[in-house]
Amino acid sequence: MDFKEKVKGAFQIAQQKICKALEEVDGKSHFSVEEWSHIEGGGGITRVIQRGNVFEKGGVNFSAVEGKMPGFMKSQVNADANLFFATGISIVIHPESPMVPIIHMNVRYFQTDAGDSWFGGGIDLTPIYIVDEQAQFFHGELKRTCDQFDIEYYPRFKNWADDYFFNEHRNETRGIGGIFYDYIKPNESISQEQLLQFSIALTDTFVDVYVPIVQENRNKPFTPSHKEWQLIRRGRYVEFNLVYDRGTKFGLETKGRIESILMSLPEFASWKYQHLVEVGSDEEYTLSKLKKGIDWLN
Amino acid sequence: MDFKEKVKGAFQIAQQKICKALEEVDGKSHFSVEEWSHIEGGGGITRVIQRGNVFEKGGVNFSAVEGKMPGFMKSQVNADANLFFATGISIVIHPESPMVPIIHMNVRYFQTDAGDSWFGGGIDLTPIYIVDEQAQFFHGELKRTCDQFDIEYYPRFKNWADDYFFNEHRNETRGIGGIFYDYIKPNESISQEQLLQFSIALTDTFVDVYVPIVQENRNKPFTPSHKEWQLIRRGRYVEFNLVYDRGTKFGLETKGRIESILMSLPEFASWKYQHLVEVGSDEEYTLSKLKKGIDWLN
Fold first, then answer.
1. Structural domain for B209, as ranges
2. Does B264 have pLDDT greater than 80?
3. List of residues 6+ apart from B231 with CB closer than 8 A
4. Is B226 annotated in the active site?
5. What is the DSSP annotation of chain B?
6. B293 lies in a domain?
7. What was the ipTM of the complex prediction?
8. CA–CA separation, B25 vs B152, rounded Å?
9. Structurally, how many domains does chain B consist of?
10. Which residues pair with B173 in a beta bridge?
C-alpha cells in the first residue's frame, strides 16, 4: 500500500478512537458524522459533538484532500510542485464549564507531486483558569511521548508552540501552549514510518491527557463571573483562529468545507471593551501566565 | 493650515457630532472618551457606548497616526514612499435588539512622504432581518449624497461595497451593502477640498439614515429565537472583520491600539455547526438577500 493511503487509514482509525473516548467522558451526547467531498478531489469526515454533559461544542475532523498548490504555500516547497495531497485530523473541544480547559490537537501529512513530503502537528491546552499542577501534568505527558521518538523534540516543539499559538496583537499566548511542529521530514535518525508512529502516539497522548483533566475539573462549581471570563477567553480563541491559524487559512484559501473549517469556533464568545481583571484575582493569575518561555516542568 | 491638519480637524468635529446624535437616540448611555498615542507618532480618541437602551456596544473611533509604510501597502503606492500619515473615523454599532441593524461607517485620508494622497471610506448596513423598504431608504439616501459630488459615485461605490463587504468563504455579503471607495484622488472634475466635503457629507448621511432606522425598529418585539439568529449573524460579522477587513488588518499590522481596533466586535456572538434556517422563515428571506448585485432602488 502506498504510504499516503497508510497515513490516511491510520488517521481515520485515530479519529474513531478519539470520538469514542470523548463520548465516554461526556456520557450524554454523541458525535454526528458528516462525510463530504472536496471540489478538487478527496474529502473528509467531520464529527461534531454538541450540548453534552461536558462538551458544549467540539469537533474531530478527518480530511484527505488533493488539489492545486495554493499560492501562499509555494514558497515553502520545491518550485516544481503544482499539486498537493494533505491528510490530517484536527480537533477543537469547547467545554461548557469554565473550569474545563479548551483543547486543540492536529496531526497532518502533506505531499506534493514534486516528491516533497512532511509531517506537522501540535497539541495545545487553553485553560480558562490555569492550574499549575495540571499544566505540569499536560506538558510532562507531551514530553514523555516526544522523548520516545527524539529527545530534541519536546524542547524544540514546545518553543515552537509558544511562538505559534500566540496572539501577536495582544502579546498573549492562547493558553499554556504544548507542542507544535511542521515540515518534519525523515532523516538518518527517524524514518517516515516512525514519523507516522509519532503522529499516532500523539493522538493517544491527546486522550491520555485530556480525559483526566476533564474528570478533575468537570464537577467544580462556577459562577456567572467565571462564565463571563470564559466567553472573553473564547473571544481570544476566535481571534487566533481567524487571524493566525494556518489550518484555518489553508482551509479558507483552498475552498474547503466551511462548516468543517470553522467548527473550531465556540458556540458563544464575547468581546468587552477594555475588560480589566481585578488585582489578585484568579483571572489575573491566568493572564500572568499567558507568556512565552514558561518552563512548566520545573 | 496644512491640508492634513484640516482633514484631521474636520474628522474630529464629525466624531463629536456623531456621538452626540447617537447618545440622543439611545437616551441612556454615554460615550466614554479615551485618548491614546501611537508608538510611532500621532494617536486618537476612542469613544465607546455600552449597554444603552438601544446600543449594546458601539464605537466611534477617531485616529490620526503616522509611521513607516507597512509592507502590505507598499505595492499600492509610489515606490519612493517610506512614511505614511493616516487619519480617519471608524464606526461600528451593535444594537441589543435583533430588529435594529448593525451599522458601519468609515472615512479616511492617507498621504505618504512621496506625495501620494487619497481618500477612502464606506458605509454599510447589516440588518439581522432585512426589511426591503428600509434597504431602499438606506441606499436611496447614500445615492442622494453621492450624486451631489459625482453621478458616477453611487453605482461605482455600491458595486465596490458588494465586492468588499463579502465573506468569500461563505459566498455571502455581510449585509445589504452600501458604498465603499478607496484611492480616490483629486482630478479635473473634483478637488481635494471637495473630496473632504464628500467625506463630511457622508458622516452627516450616516446620522440621517441610521437615526430613523433605529427609531423605526427599536420597539419591535423579539423572541429568543430572533436573538439566536442575531448572535449567528454577529458571528459572520466577526469573521468578516478578522479575516478580510482592511482597517482591522492595517491596525493589527501597524501595531495600533488593540482595544480601539477591535471595538468593532460585538459583545456576544455565536457559531453553531451547520445552522439551518427554516423554509419560508424571515431568516431564510434575509439569507436570500445576502447576495452581490441586488439593485435595492428598483
1. 3-288
2. yes
3. A268, B268, B269, B270
4. no
5. --HHHHHHHHHHHHHHHHHHHHHHHHSS-----EEEE-SSSEEEEEEEEES-SSEEEEEEEEEEEEEEPPGGGGGGS-TT--EEEEEEEEEEEEESSTTSPEEEEEEEEEEETTS-EEEEEEEEEE-SS--HHHHHHHHHHHHHHHHTT-TTHHHHHHHHHHHHSEEGGGTEESSS-EEEEEEE--BTTB-HHHHHHHHHHHHHHHHHHHHHHHHHHTT----HHHHHHHHHHHHHHHHHHHHT-HHHHHHHHTT--HHHHGGGS-SEEE--TT--PPTTSHHHHHHHT--TT--TT-
6. no
7. 0.94
8. 33
9. 1
10. B166
For chain A, percent of residues with pLDDT exceeding 90: 87
Nearest to A50 among B50, B252, B273 (CB): B273
Chain segment B114-153, per-residue pLDDT in tens: 988 999 999 999 999 999 999 999 999 999 999 999 999 9
> Count of CB contacts below 8 A, A vs B?
75
The enclosing domain of B67 has a CATH number of 3.40.1500.10
pLDDT score, position B79: 74
**Interface list for chain A against chain B, based on CB atoms closer than 8 Å:** 32, 34, 48, 50, 57, 59, 168-170, 231, 235, 238-239, 242-243, 252, 255, 258-259, 261-263, 265-274
Provide mean pLDDT across the span B36-44: 88
Q: Do A268 and B269 touch (CB under 8 A)?
A: yes
Q: What is the pLDDT of residues A140-194, one digit of tens each?
A: 999 999 999 999 999 999 999 999 999 999 999 999 999 999 999 999 999 999 9
Asked if residue A298 belongs to a domain, the reply is no
Q: How far apart (Å, rounded) are the C-alpha atoms in residues B152 and B132?
A: 24
Asked whether residue A233 is assigned to any structural domain, the reply reads yes
Decide if B294 is inside a domain: no
Residue A262 CA from chain centroid, whole number: 13
Partners of B255 on chain A (C-beta within 8 Å) are 169
